Amino acid sequence: MQGWKRVAVVLVAVVCAAAAIGLTAVAFAVDLETANQVASIVGALVGLAGFVVSAWALLRSARETVEASNGAVAAGNDIGRVVKGNNNRATGALPTPPSAAGLGTSSKADGLGSVAAGGSIGEVIGGDGNTT
Predict the structure, then answer these.
(1) How confident is the model over 63-95, as pLDDT tens digits?
(2) 3-class SS at 44?
(3) Residue 17 C-alpha from the chain's centroid
(4) Which of 21, 95, 108, 123 has the lowest tally of Cβ within 10 angstroms?
(5) Nearest-CA neighbor of 99 among 119, 76, 79?
(6) pLDDT at 40
(7) Residue 26 phi, psi (nearest 5)
(8) How many CB atoms lie within 10 A of CB 49?
(9) What is the distance between the alpha carbons of residues 118 and 128, in angstroms, rounded to a whole number?
(10) What is the DSSP letter of 14?
(11) Sign of the torsion formed by the C-alpha atoms of 5, 9, 10 and 14
(12) Which residues pair with 74 in a beta bridge?
């Protein structure tokens, strides 16, 4: 997990714990009607925050693209094997790329022999006359 994502997860966990402690304290400190109103407001705010995060993730995923040009190879996720060139023979088993944290991200490859992946790449064989 990337550094900023780890910080975000810890921050959300701390805020949720503080909210749970605060709501419990309100329930014991005041009457149930007031606690009900406070919980309703907090629930509405949390629901709105969830909606905003969901909309942001949806809009972000719509911008993700895969683009290849000039004889390049690009994929939005993992690539097991790419064989390019003349007279290459790949007879071995297809490699399994390691699992990547950034699956489904944008990738762009431009230029002869270029290979790009939004995830991980298991094996690239380029040139002429290779045997694997």
Answers:
(1) 667 777 777 777 777 777 777 777 777 777 766
(2) helix
(3) 25
(4) 21
(5) 119
(6) 92
(7) -65, -40
(8) 12
(9) 26
(10) H
(11) positive
(12) 116
pLDDT at residue 63, as a whole number: 62
Predicted model pTM = 0.46
Token digits of residue 19: 């909210």
> Do 35 and 27 form a contact (C-beta atoms < 8 A)?
yes
Please count the other Cβ atoms lying within 10 Å of the Cβ belonging to residue 67.
Answer: 12
* 3-class secondary-structure state, position 64: coil
Angle at Cα 114 formed by Cα 110 and Cα 116, nearest 5°? 85
CB of 95 closer than 8 Å to CB of 80: yes
Please return the burial class of 50, using the count of CB atoms within 10 Å of its CB with bins 0-12, 13-18 and 19+.
exposed
Q: What is the DSSP letter of 122?
A: E
> What angle (nearest 5°) sits at the alpha carbon of residue 31, between those of residues 29 and 35?
80
Give the pLDDT confidence score for residue 98 in this predicted structure: 58
Spans of the chain, pLDDT less than 50: 102-103
**How far is Cα 52 from Cα 119, in angstroms, rounded to an integer?**
27
How many other CB atoms are there within 10 angstroms of residue 42's CB atom? 15
Predicted pLDDT at 97: 59
